[in-house]
Write a structure and sequence with these properties.
Layout (H helix, E strand, L loop, with lengths): L1 E3 L3 E7 L5 E10 L16 E3 L13 E5 L15 H8 L34
């Protein structure tokens, strides 16, 4: 948790597997947002805002997923979260294993995403 000029009020959540989830541009934290607190799906950890480099813009949540296995490949960046959120909403088991990514393909519903691109983390 904390503040920086890019993400504004932000926090990180880590799951049991070591994957991390980044929330930025928050306006406030919930009482659950305390280092070491265990949270579960549906728990409120923060509130959308326009802090950091989003100041004066549309209130929103900047959300990233950082899969732990990408660290072994020398990449600490984010993957597109939307396909995972959709899959989790459907209660499907989505794995970050071996670079495979869930992406809707319009027919079968599963496919491989292109390799991760570069993400600007700081200026």
């Amino acid at each position: 948790m904390g503040y920086n000029g890019l993400g504004g009020w932000r926090l990180w959540v880590r799951d049991r597997a070591g994957n991390t989830f980044y929330y930025a541009h928050l306006s406030a934290y919930s009482p659950l947002a305390v280092d070491g607190t265990r949270v579960k799906a549906g728990d409120v950890v923060g509130f959308m805002g326009d802090t950091g480099d989003a100041k004066g813009g549309v209130v929103h949540l900047h959300f990233e997923i950082h899969p732990v296995e990408l660290l072994a490949l020398g990449y600490d960046g984010a993957v597109a979260p939307y396909p995972f959120l959709i899959a989790w909403r459907r209660a499907e088991d989505v794995s970050f294993d071996a670079g495979r990514r869930f992406v809707p393909d319009g027919s079968a519903g599963r496919g491989l995403a292109p390799p991760a691109g570069a993400i600007l983390l700081e200026l």
